[in-house]
Design goal:
This protein is 44% helix and 17% strand. The chain is α/β, with parallel strands linked by helices. It has one domain: Response regulator (Rossmann fold, 3-Layer(aba) Sandwich). The protein has a 5-stranded parallel sheet with strand order 2-1-3-4-5, sandwiched between helices. Strand 1, helix 2 and strand 2 form a beta-alpha-beta unit. 35% of the residues are buried.
């Protein structure tokens, strides 16, 4: 087996922990369904961590081992953009964050929140999968994770 094949095998065997937060179980289901258990051939399987409250998000991220976070910007009473801003301000090694927004005009708020990626509702499965896969790749490679927010 070539060195390249061994490297690819190692990468594909890695499991990634992705946290999804929304107060709405339907949104959490849509995120999990859109991304699935294996978002790309070069990435390992995803183990989902589901949170329905802001306190659960903070506790799970504080516990460590979360590779990426998908936050519903429309969640109530704690919105995903506020959580993103809190984690980015308070954690030295905050996992990359993707925020889901309902209105395109909310991109400026996502920029304020320091989100690394932004995807609009309704969820476009290929767009969300691409964003999360990119964040996981960049995190794994030790590269800065922030993507351009248009």
């Amino acid at each position: 087996m070539s060195d390249h094949a061994v490297q690819n095998l190692g990468a594909s065997a890695r499991t990634h922990s992705v946290l999804v937060y929304s107060d709405d179980a339907t949104v959490r289901d849509q995120v999990r369904g859109a991304i699935g258990r294996r978002p790309a051939a070069d990435l390992g399987r995803i183990e989902w961590v589901e949170c329905s409250t802001g306190k659960q998000v903070v506790a799970a991220v504080d516990a460590g081992g979360v590779d990426a976070v998908v936050l519903d910007g429309e969640a109530w009473p704690t919105g995903g953009m506020g959580l993103a801003k809190q984690m980015k301000d308070e954690l030295a090694d905050c996992p990359p964050v993707c925020v889901l927004i309902a209105r395109r005009d909310d991109r400026w708020l996502a920029t304020w929140s320091q989100a690394d990626a932004v995807v609009s509702h309704p969820i476009d499965a290929p767009e969300l999968t691409s964003a999360v896969a990119d964040l996981l790749r960049r995190r794994e490679a030790g590269l800065p994770v922030r993507r351009a927010l248009h």
